[in-house]
Design a protein that fits this description.
Subcellular location (chain B): Cell inner membrane; Membrane
Number of domains of chain A: 2
Largest interface: A-B, 43 and 36 residues
Strand order of the largest sheet of chain A: 6-7-8-3-9-10
Distance between the termini of chain B: 34 Å
Number of strands of chain A: 10
Number of helices of chain B: 12
Protein name (chain B): Transport permease protein
CATH class of the largest domain in chain A: Alpha Beta
GO molecular function (chain B): ABC-type transporter activity
Order of helices and strands of chain B: HHHHHHHHHHHH
Number of helices of chain A: 8
Number of strands of chain B: 0
Keywords (chain B): Cell membrane, Membrane, Transmembrane, Transmembrane helix, Transport
Shape of chain B: globular
GO cellular component, one term (chain B): ATP-binding cassette (ABC) transporter complex
Distance between the termini of chain A: 45 Å
Largest sheet of chain B: none
Oligomer: heterodimer
Structural class of chain A: alpha/beta
Radius of gyration of chain A: 18 Å
Chain lengths: 254, 268
């Protein structure tokens, strides 16, 4: 398979992706590429199609037009390899509240075909990285929102994916936890070479040198560095640039 | 293909289900109280009204309580299967089902693991119930409890797959009351769980015909015969066939490219 398994293969490649919910288009001809170790912010208001895009990449929904490749592997035809290469932090919390941190991670390890010992070693390494090593025996119910998110990130990285998808991971977190989570995700890119696709509707989570992909009503409106976008559109801040793009799109739709 | 990762996956899914079960004591208690009420209250009350003449596989005349136990075993599995399959649908929307489905293993395998896990939970419930019944004096041959195990696995898959299928196709069944009224009660009452088929026939030929067609009847008879060290070939064949067909349909129904999820999702 050309490109597959090649270190130079894109972590995520989406080409001409369209999808509709009951006839209503949710994604319209979306193309997007994320290189290894790259941090990309998928910015869009609620209902823009961010979660739909993630659902298609993770194959929760499947009936769509277009192509999706993860690490060079086609999501449909080589789903085993493709899925082995992605980690996901969903918008809704998905940890088992009554189980301990370790039990949750061990479950994930098993779902990826790891033996007990291997799963434990990998889980401990990831917990160390997110600073929750001491909490490994704690029931998830007792953790704060920020800690739970970090456990989910640790879980998403246990099988060493090339691509980490985070769907509005900071929802419901306080400012300090949010900042820490953003910083952590950036460290993953630079230190571990993981590609991160970070979906959010919060402008203040974007750093000047992040690549920003703006999605609204299922269409890609921009794809460039956060710092160059305002200048191109003739406004001062990213916030204004974002508002302008959305307004234009709204006007075009009406 | 390496086998170990598949086994690890199975162990993970089953282990999690059992752990969750241990944590949900109220669910366990409810699963146990329900058949015990039937046994101690309903069956004891009917003992006078309903003698059961000698019928297969029993060697002697039996008390009504003895007759009803295999049916109650089926009921435990029916409730458990419906409950866990419904929770899979809720989960699908909001949580752990997503975690399960992003696993790289094929979807059919993940669903089979999940159904096996919930079946094993029901097996635990059944044996605890049978232990209490034993203490109460309803005792089958010792080997019968061993022969029972495969019958429980088949029944567990059958009702679990049915629940999954229903929940994939019928949106309105998402609350449990609906499932009780339209699935569990008809399946349970229109079967040989409470009365032998010949007895139902005396009452109403129509009800008898429905009960004879009800796969749950055959599951209960398979359980009943196994408990008394007998092999009811018809019941086993029908139960296995129904379980296999329902399982296949449930997997197809869950498949995002063909089944209900895709239709809900529209697409191209």
């Amino acid at each position: 398979m050309s490109g597959a398994n090649d270190a130079a293969a894109l972590a995520l490649e989406v080409r001409g992706l369209s999808f509709a919910y009951a006839g209503r288009p949710a994604l319209d001809d979306v193309s997007l590429a994320v290189a290894a170790g790259e941090f990309v912010v998928l910015l869009g208001p609620n209902g823009a199609g961010k979660t739909t895009l993630f659902s298609l990449v993770t194959r929760l929904h499947d009936r769509r037009r277009g192509e999706i490749r993860i690490g060079g592997f086609d999501v449909r035809r080589q789903s085993v390899q493709a899925h082995g290469h992605i980690g996901v932090v969903f918008q809704q919390p998905t940890l088992d509240l009554d189980l301990s941190v370790m039990q949750n991670l061990a479950y994930h390890g098993a779902l990826h075909g790891m033996g007990r010992r291997e799963a434990k070693a990998r889980a401990l390494a990831q917990l160390e990285r997110v600073g929750l090593h001491d909490q490994r025996r704690t029931r998830v119910r007792r953790l704060s929102g920020g800690q739970r998110r970090r456990v989910e990130i640790a879980r998403g990285l246990m099988h060493e994916p090339r691509l980490l998808l985070l769907d509005e991971p900071t929802v419901g977190l306080d400012i300090a936890s949010r900042r820490e989570l953003v910083a952590h995700a950036h460290r993953l890119c630079t230190e571990a070479g993981v590609a991160v696709l970070w979906a959010t509707h919060l402008i203040d989570e974007v750093r000047p040198d992040d690549r920003v992909v703006v999605l609204h009503r299922g269409r890609l409106l921009a794809d460039e560095r956060a710092q160059s976008l305002p200048a191109r559109l003739g406004v001062d801040t990213l916030g204004e640039a974002f508002d302008l793009l959305i307004e234009k799109q709204e006007a075009a739709c009406e | 293909m390496r086998v170990m990762p598949w086994l690890h996956c199975l162990r993970g899914v089953v282990g999690r289900e059992l752990l969750r079960f241990l944590h949900q004591r109220s669910r366990f208690l409810a699963a146990l109280v329900r058949p015990l009420v039937w046994l101690f209250v309903f069956a004891a009350g009917f003992r006078m009204a309903l003698g059961v003449a000698m019928t297969e596989p029993y060697q002697t005349y039996i008390l009504y309580e003895v007759y009803i136990v295999p049916g109650l075993v089926g009921m435990i599995q029916l409730f458990n299967g419906m409950q866990s399959s419904l929770s899979m649908v809720y989960d699908r929307e909001m949580g752990s089902m997503r975690v399960l489905l992003v696993s790289p293993f094929p979807r059919w395998y993940l669903l089979v693991c999940k159904l096996l896990a919930s079946t094993l939970v029901s097996v635990v419930q059944v044996y605890v119930f049978l232990a209490i019944a034993w203490a109460y004096g309803i005792q089958a041959p010792v080997m019968g409890y061993l022969y029972l195990l495969p019958a429980l696995l088949v029944t567990g898959f059958m009702v679990g797959a049915l629940g999954l299928l229903l929940s994939s196709f019928i949106r309105q069944l998402e609350n449990f009351a609906g499932v009780m009224n339209f699935v569990i009660f008809p399946m349970f009452f229109l079967s040989s769980a409470l009365y032998p088929l010949w007895r139902i026939r005396e009452g109403s030929y129509l009800v008898y015909q429905v009960a004879a067609l009800n796969p749950f009847t055959h599951a209960v008879e398979m359980i009943r015969f196994a408990m008394y060290e007998r092999f009811n070939a018809d019941a086993v064949m029908i139960s296995v066939a129904v379980a296999v067909v329902l399982l296949a349909l449930a997997i197809l129904g869950y498949n995002p490219s063909r089944g209900m999820m895709a239709r809900k999702g529209g697409g191209d």
